[in-house]
Target: Alanine--tRNA ligase
Amino acid sequence: SLVAPDRLRFDFTNPEAVTTAQLQEIEAGVNRKILENYSLNIVFKPLQQAMAEGAMALFGEKYGETVRTITMGGETPFSYELCGGTHVGETGDIGTFLITSESSVGAGLRRIEAVTGREAYQLIHRRFNLLNQTAGLLDTNPDQIVEKTRGVLEQLDGARKSISSLRRELIAQEFKLLLENVPLVDGVAVLTAILPEADGESLREMADRFRQKYQSGVILLASVYDGRPLLIAAVTEDLVARGLHAGELVKYAAQPLGGSGGGRPTLAQAGG
Model:
């Protein structure tokens, strides 16, 4: 943990992450105590007396016989601690408390980081400027950013689906032309083709269409989808009976790509 004039880092044991709602509750509670502007009461007293009165001590910290105690909250203090550091005179001197992050730092150990005072103000100022800039880019006001962003994302999702649908149609048309002009080698239909941006499902559908049309044939299709090479091989039953294996075929074809794959004798897939 760390306590500095303008920031803090607090490590504590907890089996799970602190939720957003809990963080908001913590932040609101601290700021409420700041706004109430309680005075700090500093008293030096024997360690045993302070501990008997319920003062909070840091685990692993070594204390002398006489300790410096701090209470906040008037006659019914909400905080009573052993502390040797320098502190503000009133809680209002802290200004503002903002939690900046909550994270895991080990098994069952969580960390909250926060800023206060001038640093908190500067953080608010930076984020307010960012909010205004984002609102300007979205051509809306800051209060409508979430709704506007949701609408833009929905439009983007719809556009992506339309593009994907059109791409599949174009690939299907291209494959239809290929399927109508498959060369025969000793009576066996042999088709190899590269269909850029076709996904694995599309390639498998094309391989099935090939096997439905040709009683004896072998097909090897290649694509690059999401930056990754894909290969699909399919072999008709008669050629499997003669020793041809789609898994071995696609595995061999994937070697130059540094990939691997496999599958059934009639249908197999590989990637790079």
About this structure: The chain has two domains: 2-117, 178-271. The mean pLDDT is 93.
